[in-house]
Structure formats: C-alpha cells, structure tokens
Amino acid sequence: MNTDAFYHYLTGTRRALWATLRAMPDEQLSRAVIPTEGARCIKDLVMHIAVVEDGWFRGDLLGRPLVRETFGWKAPSSPDEYWHHPEKSLEELLTYWEAVEQDTLARWPELIEQAATDRRVAVDEDRPETLSVDEVLWHVMQHEVRHTAQIVQMIRLLGNVPPALDLAFFAAR
Ligand code: NI
Fold first, then answer.
1. How far apart are the CA of 119 and the centre of ligand 1, in A?
2. Dist. CA 151 → ligand 1 center (Å)
3. Could you tell me the distance, in angstroms and rounded to a whole number, from the CA of residue 35 to the centre of ligand 1?
4. For residue 36, what pLDDT is reported?
5. Which of 2, 16, 49, 122 has the fewest Cβ atoms within 10 Å of its own Cβ atom?
6. How far is the CA of 109 from the centre of ligand 1 (A)?
7. pTM to 2 decimals?
8. Which CATH superfamily is domain 3-171 in?
9. Does Metal-binding appear among the keywords (predicted)?
10. Confidence (pLDDT) at 1
11. Which residues in the chain come in under a pLDDT of 70?
C-alpha cells in the first residue's frame, strides 16, 4: 500500500466517522470526556486532526496559507485557544475538515513530487531534527489514525456505537 492508497482509505473512514458524529447530540460532542489540558472532547479532536493536516501540508510542505484562514479563524494565541473548540458547531468543524481534504487532494501531485526529493523539513521550530517529506506525509496520516481511535473510544464511552474504521473493512473487495 502506498501513500495515495492510504490517504484514499482515510477519506473513506472520514465519511463513516462523520455520519456517526452527525447522529450524536451536540452536548455529547462538546462534553469533556478526557481529563487533560489538551483535547478533552470530540470536537477538540476533530479540529486537531484537521489543523495538523492543514499545518503540515500547507504551512510546512507547500508554503501556502492554511485553509483555516479562509474560515476566519486566526492562529491560536494560547494552548487553550489551540485545543478547545466545544463552542463551534460540528458542521463548522466538518466543513473545515472537508475543505482541508479537498485542498490536500487538489495539491496531492505536488506533495508526492516533493516526497520524491531529498528535502528535509524541520520537525519543530525549537528542535534541530528534520524529517523527510515522505515521513511528514506518513506522520500526518498516522496521526489521524491514532486520534480517530480516541474518538471511537469516546463515542463508545458516551453510549453510542462507533463505526468500524479498520483498513480491512475498506480494502476488502
Ligand atoms: Ni495530536
């Protein structure tokens, strides 16, 4: 399985996840289920997954403005602003996530072209280490898998039935 196929798989899992989230009450999506200063509710994680893809692909790899800007959402000025989004509507967040996906798909050839070069990307502005473009692509995709697994667990803890997102269910034919 290559990068293209894995990103395509993620676009499928998103639709299944979004359908489940749309069927849940807003109060559950905003409820702080995880006791942490970071992502506490499902909406926090939805925003986090989308903004991480937006930031790495556009900000770091393509040197373009983030899709977030077109939503009038400023860069967060505190960890609290970065992490917490219970007041946003689910539709607003999913519209943003889908817009990030559309932009990623539109620029996919450029991302793959970059992955074939020996370019290195700073892992963090405060650290000297770097990543290859291919590693950044896989980091972002794996990051979504890890956090959507958390969302699935939260859906279950809130008394709902989560979707099956495993690769086998999407790849089987
Ligand atoms: Ni994360």
1. 24
2. 12
3. 16
4. 95
5. 2
6. 25
7. 0.96
8. dinb family like domain (1.20.120.450)
9. yes
10. 84
11. none
Q: What pLDDT is stored for residue 2 in this prediction?
A: 94
Query: What is the Å distance from ligand 1's center to 173 Cα?
Result: 32
| CB contact at 8 A, 30 and 92 | no
Quick one: pLDDT at residue 6? Answer: 97
Q: Give dist(CA 24, CA 158) in Å, integer.
A: 9
User: Rounded to whole angstroms, how far apart are CA atoms 169 and 161?
Assistant: 16
Q: Is 165 helix (H, G, I), strand (E, B) or coil?
A: coil
pLDDT of 81: 96
* Ligand 1 centroid – CA 37 distance (Å): 13
**Tally of CB atoms within 10 A around 110:** 13
Cβ neighbors of 77 (< 8 A, separation 6 or more) are: none
